Structures are given as structure tokens and as C-alpha cells.
Amino acid sequence: IKNIGVLTSGGDAPGMNAAIRAVVRAAIYYDLEVTGILRGYEGLVHGDFIEMNRKSVANIIQRGGTILKTARSETFKTAEGREMGYQQLKKHHIDALIVIGGDGTFTGANLFTNEFDFPIVGLPGTIDNDLQGTDFTIGYDTAINTVVNAVDKIRDTAESHDRLFIVEVMGRDSGLIALRSGIGVGAEAILIPEANMGVEGLIQRLENGRKDKASKIVIVAEGDEVGGAFNVGEALKQKFPNYDIRVSVLGHIQRGGKPSCMDRVLASRFGVAAVEGVLAGQSGVMVGQVNRELIFTPFDHAIKHIDAQQVSPAWLKLVEILSL
Ligand code: F6P
């Protein structure tokens, strides 16, 4: 292996730049050439490649987003699109790929590596933390800290006006952003798809909760079956007409910003491990960290996110105990 290609794909996540930097620097350390592929699989299909060196990744470890840009490619979902991508790699003499992204990225990588027997190693880069084979994904720590900072501010208003705030957070079909950030802000209730508390359950929780505390924070994961924070707001307004209720959807603020130190270190570790993995013959796998150890997990297993779907009842009990 002489030349490694690197790309970021799917939703951007804070720490992707730290991961790119680690891949580039590790490749150079091991005397490899490294090619940056722009706009994820879109750039791969269209041959949008740039040569990368030590300097092209200087001063990016602290920056959010991704310098390689990213996209959710429809073309790469087709067999023709992937064939075009393969031809581009051959033309540019690229021998292996390192892809940074989430489950969509690895679904594409899995098809590609099987179809063309082409070496690919993945790095988990998504704020959702919804992958199997790693305790944490790159971007999750920053995102939950962004949520905590935002909700702390909302709490000031909630307290001052005796209001109930329903705050919607991202996570697609996973409730892990909601769960951890909800505990971090001391939320009165957290609605996540893994638990399906429902509006009735929430009303019950609020009715059984403290009566002497008028301000309340409810965190709703966007993927919960209640169908978003505005739906919850409407239902609660009908049930509690005298309560001053506001809804806040945090949105893409959760994807941006400087990566936390935890995300920078995780990304750096993963980037070096991915290059070393490629050199050791790894392929069709995602690098992850479980109990502080680095491990490789096959793509088709990583995207099942079984652990993420099975939120331990102990976490939910924690929410109940702490919202007394
Ligand atoms: O996967 C990251 C994520 O931010 C999810 O939490 C969210 O559901 C989705 O991406 C939003 O995607 P887009 O930015 O394409 O609207």
C-alpha cells in the first residue's frame, strides 16, 4: 500500500478535522502518500481529489466541520456510481480508503469493499453515538456539551418565569444525545425512542413530580415516537392550560463548534489506528474504542447499533431518581 485516500461523509461532526489530521500525519509517518477526497462519496465518484501533506492539516485540530467537506451521496447508492468511484481510485493509484462518518457511510463502504475487494477502514464520526463497536463516536462529546450549554441558558429563563421548556435535540433514531445531555442538565423528564414513555407517560411524570417547583425542563429526542417537541408542547398546553410552556428546537447548533478535548483525542487515536490497521491488512471494519481498548468491528455489525438501541433501564431509573 502506497497511497491512502481519506474522506468524510454524511453529517459533519466536531472532531472530523482532528481525525483527518491524524490520518494524514500517520500516513506520512509511515511513508505513505495521502489523497484527500472532497465531498465524501460524491467527490469519489467524480474524481474530486487533492494531494495532502503535513501542512494541509496544520491548524485544524481545533476546528469544527470538515475541511474535506461532506455530502450524503445518492449516486454512490447505485452500482454504477460505485463503479465510477472504483475507476477513479484506480486512475489516481489509490490503494486503500479511510472513511470517516456514520452508518450511511459504512453501509456504502461495506458494499464497495465487498464488490471490488478494495481495502477500507472506517472511523466513527457522528454526533449521534449510534454505532456498535465503540463506546463513543467522534463528535458526540462536543454535541452533548453544546446541548448542556444551551439548556443551562434556557434554564435561567425557565427559572425566572416559572416556565416549562420542552427542548428537542438531535440523534436521528437514537436517544443517546437526549439521555446524557438530559441527565447533565438535570431534566425533569427525557423522552427517547428506546423507552417510548409517550405523552401520557410524560403527563403522569409531571403530575407525580414536585409541585413546589414551577420551572421544568423536558428533553425530547427528535426520533421519539411523540413526533417532535411541538407535538409534546401542544399536548401539554391542553392538559395544563395554566402552565407557561415554551418549545425550543436546538437544531444544527449541535453539529458545529470547536471539538472538545475528548473528541480531539478520540479522533487522533482513531486516525492513527486506522492507518496502522490498513497497513496490517484490516479491511471492511470500523475502528472503535471499547473500555479504553482499540478494536475493529466489521461494518455490517457496526451499523446495527444494538447497544445504542438497548438503553439500559438503569439509565432511565437514574433520570427518575434524580428528578425527584
Ligand atoms: O446524523 C447526524 C444528524 O445531525 C442527526 O442527528 C440528524 O437527524 C441528521 O443528522 C440531520 O441531517 P441533515 O443535516 O442532513 O438535515
UniProtKB/TrEMBL annotation:
Entries under Pfam families matching the protein: PFK
Major subcellular site: cytoplasm
One Gene Ontology term from the biological process aspect of the record: canonical glycolysis
Keywords, ordered alphabetically: Allosteric enzyme, ATP-binding, Cytoplasm, Glycolysis, Kinase, Magnesium, Metal-binding, Nucleotide-binding, Transferase
InterPro entries referenced in this protein's UniProt entry, alphabetically: ATP_PFK, ATP_PFK_prok-type, PFKA_ATP_prok, Phosphofructokinase_CS, Phosphofructokinase_dom, PKF_sf
Tree of life domain: Bacteria
GO cellular component, as recorded: 6-phosphofructokinase complex
Pathway(s) served: Carbohydrate degradation; glycolysis; D-glyceraldehyde 3-phosphate and glycerone phosphate from D-glucose: step 3/4
Binding site for ATP: 11, 72-73, 102-105
Binding positions for substrate per the UniProt entry: 126-128, 163, 170-172, 222, 246, 252-255
Residues of the Phosphofructokinase domain: 3-277
Signal peptide: none
GO molecular function: 6-phosphofructokinase activity; AMP binding; ATP binding; fructose-6-phosphate binding; identical protein binding; metal ion binding; monosaccharide binding
Reaction equations catalysed: beta-D-fructose 6-phosphate + ATP = beta-D-fructose 1,6-bisphosphate + ADP + H(+)
Cofactor(s) this protein cannot do without: Mg(2+)
Residues holding Mg(2+): 103
Positions with a binding annotation for ADP: 21-25, 155, 186-188, 213-215
EC class: transferase
Subcellular location: Cytoplasm
Active site: 128 (proton acceptor)
Family from the record: Belongs to the phosphofructokinase type A (PFKA) family. ATP-dependent PFK group I subfamily. Prokaryotic clade 'B1' sub-subfamily.
PANTHER family: ATP-DEPENDENT 6-PHOSPHOFRUCTOKINASE, PHOSPHOFRUCTOKINASE
Quaternary structure and partners: Homotetramer.
Name by which UniProt lists this protein: ATP-dependent 6-phosphofructokinase
Source organism: Pedobacter heparinus (strain ATCC 13125 / DSM 2366 / CIP 104194 / JCM 7457 / NBRC 12017 / NCIMB 9290 / NRRL B-14731 / HIM 762-3)
Lineage: Bacteria, Pseudomonadati, Bacteroidota, Sphingobacteriia, Sphingobacteriales
